[in-house]
Amino acid sequence: MEHWRDYPVDADPRRLVLTGETVLVGAGFASNDAKQAFLAGEFAAAADVPDEVLRALARHHGKLHGHALRITGAERVSATFDTDRGPRQLPAWRVRIDGVDGPVSVLDPEIARDAAGPEGIDGITGTDMRARLGADERTMILEFLGSPPQYTDYPRAVVLESPAAVTVIPVPHELLEGDRLLYGQQREVTARLRDPLGARVAVDYRSGCPITVDAAPAPQHATAREQTAIPGCGLLSGTHQTRAPRTPATLPALVQCVDGYQL
Known about the structure:
By secondary structure, the protein is mainly beta. It has four helices and 16 strands. The radius of gyration is 26 Å and the shape is globular.
């Protein structure tokens, strides 16, 4: 939470928060040597490429085995990048590099410089968490990698809030003691915020990295056709039909209704 205390929550427009990579490789690499060279961050520019774009590509520094990869072209485009409010089309550079299958998209350095994230505490990036926000902007369903349901339940969560950030901490209840297989599984827990999320940043409580929060979908309004009731049946005609539970008590009425309307 402290990591985000200076986030300008009242800024208009809201400051961009990145949750994913700023350099996107499309199809992969022609060889493992090309991949290692790319990760080492050594490039030879054979085309006119802005220095800031080259620095963004060379953000990884390692020991290079082999030759530097040759950049053969670059052009301004727009590309989709992950943010804390979902995917967004942002200005970018499309860079063509020998040994890389397909173009590489680099977020415009000016946009990246003005954005917050995706780093958390101590420069950590990446998180297994994602959240869904209810229509009331207070109900938050946190998706995370946790212990499998046969071992652990997550009946509740602790919520920490500040003027700039929110974090949800799942509270585990162990169902099994003793030895168990060590693997993670996608889990979720529902929490309620004290105040609406607003422009605040939801963060991973372990690393301080921002997480993506998906807004609740707009309510669906049924059409007149979808709302036409079949008399005495409790079913709806149209493309979407609500079926009554087929228990012994309700099955005769359901069969009579279907027969009566020759469905």
